From TrEMBL:
Residues 11-143 form the ISXO2-like transposase domain. The lineage of its organism: Eukaryota, Metamonada, Preaxostyla, Oxymonadida, Blattamonas. This is ISXO2-like transposase domain-containing protein. SMART domains: DDE_Tnp_IS1595. InterPro entries: IS1016-like_transposase, Tnp_ISXO2-like. Pfam families: DDE_Tnp_IS1595.
Length: 157
């Protein structure tokens, strides 16, 4: 499986394609004392082609994960007519009004594939690989973005 890092001006998807979208929180400990953490959010998507042999990925660190920020990212990175597979988070509701087809998978009810056969397993697996690649401590949070791009690059090779 290959993941292709896209430039900021590249858009993925289109009619007949599927993009798995998700958001993930990443944290960095404040120090060895206490449990205070600094969180940041990454919103991302994986384009799955028909034979599932190659994927295109687009991810961005965001300051807020509200509906307007999310809609702006999706409109910037995903072409209209794309089927977007998401969880049941309410920030994703209403994408069908923007010209996208929306499929939801409810992981909280142990649903990993919805009734139409759509899944979010590929984007969830990416978050797991990314978290395992991050150092446990001693790295400033602004360096985490470098680890993030490194992991996406390693999936290309």
């Amino acid at each position: 499986m290959m993941a292709k890092v896209l430039t900021p001006n590249t858009r993925i998807g289109g009619p007949g394609t599927t993009v798995e979208m998700d958001k993930a929180a990443f944290a960095r400990s404040k120090g060895v004392r206490g449990s205070s953490r600094h969180y940041y959010w990454i919103v991302g998507g994986y384009l799955t082609n028909q034979d599932k042999s190659q994927r295109q990925a687009t991810f961005e660190r965001v300051a807020r994960r509200d509906k307007s920020t999310l809609y702006g990212l999706i409109q910037r990175f995903v072409l209209p007519g794309t089927t977007i597979v998401t969880d049941h988070w309410k920030g994703f509701l209403g994408l069908d009004e923007l010209g996208y087809k929306l499929e939801k998978v409810n992981n909280k009810k142990n649903e990993w594939t919805n009734e139409n056969g759509f899944t979010r397993n590929h984007v969830e697996a990416f978050w797991g690989r990314l978290r395992r690649s991050l150092p446990v401590s001693g790295v400033p949070r602004w360096h985490h973005v470098g680890y993030f791009y490194r992991q996406v690059y390693l999936e290309q090779v």
